[in-house]
Input
Amino acid sequence: MESILASTEDHLVSNLAFKLPQNSASYVTDKQQATYFPQGGDVYSPLSGQRVIRFSLSSSGYLDLSSLVFTMDFRNGPLGACTTLVNGGHCLFTRVRVLISGTEVENLEYHNVVAEMFHRLLPQEKQNNVELMAFGGGPIAAGATRQIIFRPSILGIANQPLWIPPFMGHQGCVIEMHCANPEQCMQSGAGQSQIYSLSNVRALCDVYTLDAALNNTYASHVLAGKPLVFALKSLITTSFQLQPGTPSFDVNVARSISRCNSVFVTLHGEPGALVQDVNTFISANPEEIQGRVQIGSKQWPDGQPVTGLAAFWYRLVTGLGVFHSASHTLAITRAQYAASHFIWCTDTEKVPVATGSGYAVNKGELITVSMKNLAATHQRALVTIHHDVTMELRDTGCDVLVF
Output
């Protein structure tokens, strides 16, 4: 041991480095907290008028989409109180699309359900912070208005650190949000409203201005035919109708992706006044439930399928990377996981910290999800694929690759 330590070199610890950090950024000359207005009208409703909110985020500066949020006034109908099924603003939108230079980069269907799934995988304090800006204050009285702030937290383009440059053509970065029907996000029944509208909708985003020298460097790079490359993690969700009364199922996902990082599965039953897909992820037979994911000839897990609620929970926390963490926890009890918070995660990456280490499905392999020993209450299964995407910005437009 002593001989090994003697061969190492001494370095000055940071506590004794009495100088300014060498990480200045004087090339950033300005930062704006920009506000963008939607294209079209100012009042949106799924029952009357426009139900698709469309923004065109264009600027002469660099957009930091990790700062992107949408603010709006939620107005309840004139009859009955409004009680949302979940407290996050994501419940208001069933679909979100992102287009850059006219090319579709992301298209998240069942957005409200998938966003709620990932919201439930956050620590309780973080959930409270998100819900405080939306419906965490309780029911909204008839005819009343509440300001809502919604962050598109499951968009891959909003979860990467690179700023979007102004070389995006006249269309810029377009984001479309489709409003959910009232029964998909609001409680129904006696004394409950089923009417809402959104007005004063705005997009808030930080925009950075670079000095002319650095900006011209990037412009020259693009004009020379070279791309600016963005590595994204995106989601694709497919809904399957299950055979009623059947305690098992096998479903196949056929999508044009190349690297599959993980597979998330949620199960849903009969909708009702207080139960919709957005707030209830059902389970069954906690000691007997089984599941397996197969891509081509490769199975996860190898050998025996996942069996029992504890094993499904183990696969979830290991797939999320929080199994060994003392600070990152999930705010889900066993009773909740067995009743209305069941989420199954299968990690298919070889090395999670490496880029492009997901399982290769570029030859058209089917992703098969199988479950057994379910109850007879399951009617739908939502399968969400987490995969790699590469976006290249060129002078001719935007190219989206899947490795």
Notes: The mean pLDDT is 92. The two ends are 45 Å apart (CA to CA).
